[in-house]
Amino acid sequence: MPGEVEKTLESLGWRLPEVGKPTGQWVQTVRTGNLLYISAKYPKEAGKLKFVGKIGREVTVEQGVEAARLAALGVLATAKQAVEDLDRVKRVVQVVGYLALAPGYHDAFNVMEGASDVFVKALGDRGKHTRLAQGVDDLPQNACLQLQAVLEIE
Predict the structure, then answer these.
(1) Phi, psi (5° rounding) for residue 59?
(2) Is 81 left (phi over 0), alpha (psi -120 to 50) or beta?
(3) Is the confidence at residue 102, as pLDDT, over 90?
(4) Quick one: pLDDT at residue 144?
(5) Rounded CA gap, 19 and 74, in Å?
C-alpha cells in the first residue's frame, strides 16, 4: 500500500520509474547511519534516456527542467527500493546536479528547479535541501544531466 509521499506524487501525476540494476562494481545506494547516498540518476522514461545533448542547444530549458524532474523521481524510486517506504525520508539533505551545458549557457540554476520542485512538492519542508548545479562539458551516454542525492532516513 502506498504511503503519503507516494500518494502525493500520484496526485501530481508523477510516477516512480523502475530502478535499473548496476552494471559494474558499484551499488545504487549506500546507507551509513541514518544517511542514504544515492548514485547518479539520469532523466529516464520507460527505462530509456529521454533527453540527450546539451542544455541550451539540443535540449531546451523547458526540456532540461523536465529532465531534472525525471531524474529526481529516479532518486525517489531508488530511495524507496532501499528503505521500502518513502515516508521514512526524514529530510533531503543534498542534491547535486551535473548539467551538460551548451557554450555560453549559464542558467543551470533554473534547470535544477525541476528537481527541487519534486522533492519539495513530495515531502514538504522535509524536501528542502542544499544544492549544487554544476555545468559540465559531457556526461555518459550524452545525457543532458545527472543527479546525486543524500537523504536522511528515520
Answers:
(1) -115, 125
(2) alpha
(3) yes
(4) 98
(5) 7
What is the radius of gyration, based on Cα positions, of the chain? 15
Cell of 66: 523536465
Indicate the average pLDDT of the chain: 96
Does the predicted model carry a pTM greater than 0.90? yes
Please tell me the total number of residues recorded for the chain in this structure. Answer: 154
Grid coordinates given for 64: 532540461
User: Can you give the chain as a three-state secondary structure string?
Assistant: CCCHHHHHHHHCCCCCCCCCCCCCCCCCEEEECCEEEEEEECCEECCEECCECCECCCECHHHHHHHHHHHHHHHHHHHHHHHCCHHHEEEEEEEEEEEEECCCCCCHHHHHHHHHHHHHHHHHHHHCCEEEEEEECCCHHHECEEEEEEEEEC
Closest CA to 127 of 99, 86, 97: 86
